[in-house]
Specification:
CATH architecture: Up-down Bundle
CATH superfamily: Formiminotetrahydrofolate cyclodeaminase monomer, up-and-down helical bundle
CATH class: Mainly Alpha
CATH topology: Four Helix Bundle (Hemerythrin (Met), subunit A)
Strand content: under 5%
Largest sheet: none
Number of helices: 6
Helix content: over 70%
Shape: elongated
Structural class: mainly alpha
């Protein structure tokens, strides 16, 4: 489990030729890092007289980011879990008509699961943007740059995970379901990247003005 591992060990596995973890898990981890940075900003804000008017909202954002971090770390593991049966499905025998039919059926089910995992990463990353938006506006000014970094980590989760959606839906025979997945991913990517960049740009403006 990624949460119980030393990060260096996980990165070592990522760098190796082992099939997992891969880009999907790395995207989820990027999202988790973004939510962790958001929590840091919230923790630096709560309890400060200067930000007393926003105390309630910041605490709500903190709780939400903690929840999203847990879910993104779980999804980093889930991405590896769904890859293994997919890889095995591609190796199933196909010498007879019955074997080919079974292989195709198993493969299609695995592709659905393998698409859902990165799509869930995108959903959680997108949800983190509400909290980061609030923290950019009302969080500690001393940690403004950290909000910007958090936004870019979340953006990376979106732009990374979307490729794992597309690579799996491309091979799905059920094109109606595939396009439904793709359309959802398209919306999350377009709107999420825009919002993340807006947060980042506002931070840059604050830092340079």
């Amino acid at each position: 489990m990624i949460k119980g591992e030393i990060l260096g060990e996980w990165i070592g596995q990522l760098a190796s030729k082992a099939p997992t973890p891969g880009g999907g898990g790395a995207s989820a981890l990027a999202g988790a890092l973004g939510t962790a940075l958001g929590q840091m900003v919230a923790n630096l804000t709560v309890g400060k007289k200067r930000y007393a008017d926003a105390e309630g909202e910041v605490r709500e954002s903190l709780a939400k980011l903690e929840e999203l971090q847990e879910e993104l770390l779980r999804l980093a593991d889930r991405d590896a879990e769904v890859f293994s049966p997919l890889a095995q499905a591609y190796r199933l025998p196909e010498d007879t008509e019955a074997e080919r039919a079974r292989k195709e059926s198993v493969l299609q089910e695995c592709l659905i699961d393998a698409s859902k995992a990165p799509l869930a990463v995108m959903e959680k990353a997108f949800q983190a943007l509400d909290a980061l938006d609030l923290l950019e506006e009302k969080g500690s000014r001393m940690a403004a740059s950290d909000v910007g970094v958090a936004a870019q980590f979340v953006r990376t989760a979106l732009t990374g995970a979307v490729m794992n959606v597309y690579i799996n839906t491309k091979s799905m025979k059920d094109r109606q379901r595939a396009e439904a997945f793709n359309e959802k991913a398209d919306r999350l990517l377009l709107e999420g990247a825009r919002r993340a960049d807006e947060i980042y740009d506002r931070v840059l403006h604050k830092l340079r003005s």
